[in-house]
Amino acid sequence: MTKIIDRTKIAAALAGALAMAGSGVVAAQDLATLQKEDSRTIEAAAKSQVKIDSLFEQSQDLLGEYRTVVAEYENLKVYNDHVQSLVDDQERQLASLQKQIDGVERTKQGIVPLMYRMIDSLEDFVKLDIPIHKEQRLARVERLRSIMGNSSVSTSEQFRQIIEAYQAELDYGSGLISYQGNLDVNGEEVAVDFFHLGRVAFLAQSLDLRNAWIYNNETDEWTALEDEYLGPLTTAIRMSRKQTAYDVVKLPIFAAENAE
């Protein structure tokens, strides 16, 4: 009986020892598992932190880009407002120019007939005036008529040239002027110095200083002058060329008629 009990105790003791030994093995396995899990958790946390850092950097970059875009938008808005103001101003100017163009067209309708009348009056004046450069002046009138029919010449340029022609006619009426040319005397061409005192007197003297003539606007003829006028006319011609000082000279005068 006692031996049986002892064996039972021994068996129980062995069973307990084995149980404790088994428990230690299990505990060691659990610790290793926990350590692995901790390592995995730490590793996962580290990866997550890397992702977080990367996302943060990306968000900062996006924020910077956003701020840049906003700044560019504000700049573009200011610039667009500026350009729009320029466009509005140009549109106002174009509208003003169009009104001026319309006004010019209406003005042209009135000024073109006026220019034709001015040319006609100029031609009549030249024909009635003393024949100073008569061929040259009539040729100028013909040029004016020619440009009036030339579409490549603007209305303003046509008007300018007509005014220039009138100014040239005014210049003939002032000062002492002389020039050389040929005078038809009884069918013979004689080389002469023409001289005119404005439009008050128009005379001619042969280059040999032996003969002189005066234009009679009433008869449209040249009349020979007496010898007493040869010296004064020579002096007057020299004065016109600034070859001698101005002085009083005695010359005959025929007044020119005015164009009607």
TrEMBL record:
Keywords recorded for this protein, A-Z: Coiled coil, Signal
Coiled coil: 80-107
Signal peptide: 1-28
Identification of the protein by name: TonB system biopolymer transport component
Organism, as annotated: Idiomarina xiamenensis 10-D-4
InterPro entries (alphabetical): UCP028069
Claim: Signal is one of the keywords in the record: yes
Superkingdom to which the source organism belongs: Bacteria
Organism lineage string: Bacteria, Pseudomonadati, Pseudomonadota, Gammaproteobacteria, Alteromonadales
One matching Pfam family: DUF3450
